[in-house]
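Final report, Chapter 2: Outcomes

The project's central promise was a pipeline that accepts a single protein chain and returns its three-dimensional structure in a standardized token representation, suitable for archiving and comparison. That pipeline is now operational. To close this chapter, we reproduce one record exactly as it appears in the project archive, with the input sequence first and the structure output second.
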Amino acid sequence: MRHHGGLTQVELAGATGLSPATVSNIVKELTASGLLHTAPTSRSGRRAVHVTLARRLGLVAGIHISMRHMRVALADVANTVVSEHSMPLAKDHRADNELDKAARLIVDMLDSVDASLDEVLGVGIAMSAPVDAATGMISRSGLMRGWDGIPIAEVMQRRIHRPVFIDNDSNLGALAESRTGAARGRSDVLYIRLAQGIGSGLILGGQLYRGFGNSAGEFGHMTIDENGPVCRCGNRGCLEALAGGPAILESLRETHGALKLNDVIVRAIGGDQLCVRALADAGRHIGIAAANVCNLLAPERIVVGGDLARAGELIIGPIRHSMERSVVMGANKVADLVQGQLGERAEMSGALMFAVDSSSFGHDDFAAALS
């Protein structure tokens, strides 16, 4: 139940290999003890019993901070969101201001569901930058300038007095898509997050792969053109500098003036050929980088998420075409490329799951509750 969030009794039987009668008896016992909650539902027109973890086991909060947006959510340990809020961020937002806002939002959302901070088991934070797990700081300066040198988890923990856990947002997007989204049931997955910046998360052997120093997955800073434009990381010719949100907007500035990324997507879907071409050019670069990962790691599936994924085949199609031209394995061995199922909420959902996994609920406290 921790892993899947909620299942019917029939699905539980399939997942555990137990008989339906045994599952029914266990569910009744754990529901009577207050550990599970059941509710009537239907599957394929048939009545069923949906089973989740009971709210009394606690709540978690998830925060996703990207370059231009912040999302905050409150959920129970079964991953059912009970309150959610989002807001735009200024271009050069700073850690102290945004963490203050997030802390106030969490308190307000707890009030709205008649809960208190004491019920919060942990807070997961997803950052749009690589994070040093040992220090809780962004590990490469210049990527989010207002956050450099800030021990983010420690600062947030001082504000709300609850455990705080932090990771890169693409890692947590990969975690969410692998558990409840487009990568569910796949053991080797590349998750690509396309937005203002470009990042990725890797699921290898069914587990989130963070690499040495928690630095795996910097897909956007793969060198595509060594003589290309200077990237915000300081290197030249990175994928992000060629195909990230700012690069796409800059390619259209002369003909369309100042646009937002969503404007480009809407216009492209509406048939604006210059916007279609801008997305296709970005997709071509991304496909080359994806092919490099395929040649190195041979993932089974590639999931595309982030703001640009809303363009659907207008960007996924060019990525697929470019990738398939550049991989060396046979056509039947190339990773299938799909759009994420969780949309703009993937990283926040991953932050909630990360908070559950990392909190004491995930270990000794849960075992004690079961006993």
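Archive annotation: Residues 167 and 275 are 33 Å apart (CA to CA).
This record, like all others produced under the grant, will remain available to the consortium after the project formally closes.
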